[in-house]
Amino acid sequence: MGEWKSICMLEDIPRLGSRVVRATGGDIAVFRTSANVVFALRDQCPHKGGPLSQGLVHGNQVTCPLHGWKLRLDSGEAVPPDEGCSRRYPVRVESGTVFLQI
């Protein structure tokens, strides 16, 4: 089981946007929805490796900026008819601070 790390304040992540966390296993994109729910996925689309952190957040999904694939933020799974998955990381918010388990 990984270690929980404080990465930023919730307000540091743009609403309907993301923030990139550098990690030894690859970059992690931390997303914030319009409802202030926070999700974290590997910053790589399963299709062609596009940077998900640069995609559009809508509802509980992100659209890859390269080819328009949509991924569910809660699971990392591609929305059908596309197939694939981006690794999901546990994330939590406590007293306005965002913690990521890596």
Automatic annotation (TrEMBL):
Report the leader peptide range.
none
CDD domains per record: Rieske_NirD_small_Bacillus
Molecular function per GO: 2 iron, 2 sulfur cluster binding; metal ion binding; nitrite reductase [NAD(P)H] activity
Q: Name one GO biological process term.
A: nitrate assimilation
**UniProt xrefs under SUPFAM superfamilies:** ISP domain (SSF50022)
Give the E.C. number(s): 1.7.1.4
* Pfam families named among the record's database cross-references: Rieske
Residues forming the Rieske domain are 5-100
- What keywords does the record list, in alphabetical order? 2Fe-2S, Iron, Iron-sulfur, Metal-binding, Nitrate assimilation, Oxidoreductase
Q: Which InterPro entries match?
A: Rieske-like_NirD, Rieske_2Fe-2S, Rieske_2Fe-2S_sf
Protein name as it appears in the record:
Assimilatory nitrite reductase [NAD(P)H] small subunit
